[in-house]
Amino acid sequence: MPSTLELGAVIRNPFNRETFTFSGSADDPEVARFDVALEPGGTGGANALVHFHPKADERFAVRSGRLKVVLDDKEHFIGPGEDIVVPRGRRHFFANANEGTTDMTVELRPAQQHVRFFANMASLAQDHPEWFSNQGLPHFLLAALMLHSYRDHLYGVVLPQPLPKLLFAGLAPVARMKGYALAIEPKN
């Protein structure tokens, strides 16, 4: 299984209508940075499911277009030259609020392994669409494998913490036995 991400890699998640460009280091300990182009109707965060990053702040800096960020149930609209920071642990999702493509840079601090995490999810959606629902959600066992392998990077808000950690730890080996595999393994 690959454990590296090629610099300059461009990966499109067809379900979210989201294209990632990974031009920075995948292993910078300070900041995970990548560019995202959201097509019309495009969303981020597992098709706009409310989620949070327990150990990293996330910044969205819009270069063109218009982005809607829903933070703690409040809508924010961000235009060219503007940015918004979502503090760690805060519930959010985002979507293109433009008739055309919205281009932005996303940063997470500290970096953890967010570049690998997002590259992994987009790669799997691109290369194994059969592992995703028609709505673009990863099959439950694949989600368990991803979220266990990249612990403390992203959680949905459906299950109370720490239940997902325990559940995903138990299901990750089952996912591998069923044939699910990561596109990019976490760096040890």
Describe the protein.
This protein is an alpha+beta fold and 188 residues long. It folds into two domains: 9-112, Jelly Rolls (Sandwich), CATH 2.60.120; 115-177, no CATH class. It is 23% helix and 31% strand. The strands form three sheets. It has a six-stranded antiparallel sheet, with helices on one face. The protein has a four-stranded antiparallel sheet with strand order 4-10-7-8. Helix 3 crosses helix 4.
Radius of gyration: 15 Å
- How does the helix and strand content classify structurally? alpha+beta
Bin the strand percentage: 25-35%
As for the CATH topology of the largest domain, it is Jelly Rolls
Report the end-to-end length measured between terminal Cα atoms: 14 Å
Estimate the helix proportion, in percent.
Answer: 10-25%
Shape: globular
DSSP summary: helix tally: 4
The beta-strand count equals 12
For this structure, what is the CATH homologous superfamily of the largest domain? Jelly Rolls
Return the domain count: 2
Task: Flag low-confidence runs.
Answer: none
CATH architecture of the largest domain: Sandwich
Order of H and E elements:
EEEEHEEEEEEEHHEH
CATH class category name of the largest domain: Mainly Beta
Mind summarizing the main beta sheet?
6 strands, antiparallel
Let me know the average pLDDT. 89
Walk across the major sheet and give the strand order.
1-2-3-11-6-9
